[in-house]
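re the bet — no i am not wrong, look at it urself. input seq straight from the record:
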Amino acid sequence: MTTTTHAAVVESAGAPFTLCDVELDAPGPGEALVRLVATGLCHTDLAVASGALPFPLPGVLGHEGAGVVEAVGPDVTGVEPGDHVVLSFTSCGDCCNCRDGHPAYCATWLPLNLIGGRRADGTSTISRDGSPLGGHFFGQSSFAECALVDRRSLVKVDPDVPLERIAPLGCGVQTGVGAVWKVLKPRAGSTLVVLGAGAVGLSAVMAAALTPAARIIAVDRFAERLTIAEELGATHTVNAAESDLGDTLAALTGGLGADGIVETTGNVAVLRQGADALAARGTLVVVGAPPFGTEVALDVNGLLPGKRIVGLTLGDSETQTFIPALVQLVKEGRLPLHRLISTYPFTGIDQAVRDMNAGKTIKPVLTF
């Protein structure tokens, strides 16, 4: 039987969200029906809704869900009705990268998560008045009271941790944390720079504060966010609206440059400044995602002193182990995500979008 649920539908590129009833298929093989308790709002959702990233519209977005399993389909193991789950990206499970523990680089990642809008077999998970909608976004489409979720998007979590506090783990937080822990891996005395103090950047700051890095430099154009960055572990902050970024980073690093940089803004001019600010053998992790086809010019000779530029998707996370570990850190107070979160009722999704675009909130979380 299908399930009727209330969802936020994007009718066309640039249109606001429309709240209406939609129908979800019954859980098929490898799927579960999840009642949402909370879902984060991410810049990727806004990029798709604006038309900057391709996705079949009208459709239902949302990819930082957290909720309770209502029902499971055939071949679903490891979760059962009543379990608390965080929803993350999906993957095929069979390609070489999935088998090697790197599902964020699944051979079918783009169609399964971002641009397909359908199951792998081409069938739709969501319809309205008998017409299929774009869905299966990151294996979940969590901008709805209930979601039909791919098994590999489900991560069972500790039921003692409030779901509205950990919904952002499914995308933005694990991305920022993974950039530091899985790519940069700071050594004692390292200097790290985080470009952009949004949800991903501040997650990187919190992750860096749990390493032996000596200097953690947060960069943003909003003074309020820089204040939060300091409270979360940044040793220095740079307001890029008030000072030259290159000169300031050179001064802070004694002219040597940074050992590791996380670029979260998606601004290619900022990315270039990050590349120029690297120390010899330093690494720039590119996390921010501008529109498809965006290019950046680099000084090739400037890269020759062993500098590396590395792209990163979703923190290179193996979600079934990484997300529960992050939940435990939240529970212990060592990863204070509540400092980033502002909650909105699901019906206030358009207000949450406006506040996010205006820089009034760092991580909006919609509650049901």
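see?? The longest strand covers residues 31-40. told u. also The two ends are 23 Å apart (CA to CA). so pay up
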